[in-house]
Design goal:
Layout: H1 2-13, H2 19-31, H3 35-48, H4 55-69, H5 73-90, H6 93-109, H7 113-129, H8 133-149, H9 153-169, H10 173-189, H11 193-208
Helix pairs in contact: 1-2, 2-3, 3-4, 4-5, 4-6, 5-6, 6-7, 6-8, 7-8, 8-9, 9-10, 10-11
């Protein structure tokens, strides 16, 4: 991540910037927890991106996520709703799905779990329609998280396992390492130590690969 940040900063210093470069730098800064600088570069991306451009919703979605990670759920919700509206108007299904998922995550935070799960399921239908495996895997994972909030561990595990199999298909080792830990923790709660150990070990393997 540090080398990626240096690369993007170097491009910008040479005047070789674009909305994509600003976005990628903001996204990378977000991954290392530097939300303040991420906001700065994301604003630069937003300023040079035409509102009609499908990339605009991508920027607004990330802006919402930066607010969310900063603990500002109200502003996050506003950005996600804005992104959802624009995505629907333009037929930008990928960003519509992301917006729906992000809003559902906020609903979970507010304790509106039934509404959140409806949004997740609707977003899943859209992801199936456009055959986007990565988004579907993400949605199953987040629906699993939702079920942990109500201590419905069987449903949580089912959704985590669905997500796990999809991420395995597309070889997303970073996500697989997180999911392995989550599934392992659920098995641990029901004293299934053998399965818990299996997933914890797999998680370590994925984290190291």
């Amino acid at each position: 991540n540090a080398s990626s940040i240096s690369t993007y900063e170097s491009l910008i210093a040479k005047g070789l910037f674009s909305k994509e470069v600003f976005y990628q730098l903001a996204y990378t800064l977000r991954k290392v927890g530097n939300y303040e600088d991420a906001f700065i570069y994301l604003s630069k991306a937003e300023n040079i991106c035409e509102r009609e451009d499908l990339f605009f919703e991508k920027i607004i979605n990330l802006k919402g996520t930066l607010y969310f990670l900063s603990g500002d759920y109200d502003n996050a919700k506003n950005e996600y709703e804005s992104s959802l509206k624009l995505a629907k108007q333009k037929g930008n299904t990928v960003e519509e799905i992301k917006s729906l998922a992000n809003l559902a995550i906020i609903k979970d935070q507010y304790g509106e779990v039934k509404e959140a799960r409806k949004d997740f399921l609707y977003a899943m239908n859209l992801a199936n329609e456009i055959e986007n495996v990565e988004l579907l895997a993400f949605l199953y994972s987040e629906l699993g998280v939702s079920y942990t909030y109500t201590n419905n561990l069987v449903e949580a595990r089912k959704n985590y396992e669905n997500s796990y199999s999809l991420y395995k298909m597309i070889k997303n080792n970073e996500r697989l390492s997180y999911l392995s830990a989550n599934i392992g923790a659920l098995f641990l709660q029901i004293s299934n130590y053998k399965s818990a150990l299996k997933y914890y070990n797999e998680g370590l393997d994925y984290a190291g690969s």
